[in-house]
Amino acid sequence: xxxxxxxxxxxxxxxxxxxxxxxxxxxxxxxxxxxxxxxxxxxxxxxxxxxxxxxxxxxxxxxxxxxxxxxxxxxxxxxxxxxxxxxxxx
Length: 90
Known about the structure:
A two-stranded antiparallel ribbon has the order 1-2.
């Protein structure tokens, strides 16, 4: 899980998913996805359900992630809100 430039934490997710939904015409559709595609679907569904990535971490990882996020907030995110300055200054 990227927590900003240069920081990642591991999130455990199922390797495969089966999604059922409706297309724009109201017809039921079924999608099976695995590997990267399955992880992308799970990530995007979390967005739709309002689930934050830190909610997927175990207790220790969550504590570490929150420390990192708090430190970045105190360091003044207004100076580099999207992290692009730190990416392009490497």
